[in-house]
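User: Quick sanity check before I run a bigger batch. Here is a single chain. Can you write out its predicted 3D structure?
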Amino acid sequence: MKNLYFELLDKPVFSAQDLTEYYDNEESARSALKRLLADGLIYKIRNNMYTCKSGESGQPVASKYQIACSISKDACISHHSAFEYYGILNQVYYDVIFSSPSSVREFDFDNIHYRGIKTDCNIGIETVAFSGGVRITNKERTVIDSIKDMNKISGFEEIDECISMLSGLNEEKLKEMLAFYDNQFLYQKTGYFFENHKDTLKISDDFIEYCCGHIGSSKRYIDKAASGIYIPKWQIVVPKLT
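Assistant: Done. Predicted structure follows.
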């Protein structure tokens, strides 16, 4: 068992099928898996997902980001979890948001809540070098996704704070994301936030006007639960920041 444990240490997250490379048949592999669990050498994350127990700390070997990216073949860290990974947010979150083409039921492991966002978007994803398989939305997609889904995941103030800490974004990548979603309300929200933080973001006037040219004629509330201030240029009502 010890030899198998040391072999599995090279796999941050593994399944029962992964053990078949060490055995002649699936039954033997499953028996080995049960012995590893009984000996307390591995943790069960969820159905058919496992990680080794660190011999030094006793904690799971896989990071929360590696676990989220192993949920499905195309899963990637996104939204405020991506901001957290990039070091843009200082607060500690006890959840991980990931995006995936597949629907994934929410689950908890090691005091972390994992929540998947189903999406058909397959652009703006990067694999982090020397990360053990962490895939993540790039900063441009992260900010656009966060603005798009702000009432589902993060509120107005959190998004505003995140954007205030960004700089050096690629405008062509931002336009690519906006064009992919092709949503007038998203252009309104993005234009408002980016103009409000234009100096920090170092965004050009051309990009602001690009957003303005796609907003249509509808007037909307960014946060329907809050009254606020009407911004004529973007035709939206935004909450008063506390």
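The chain is about 35% helix and 20% strand.

User: Great, the batch can go ahead then.
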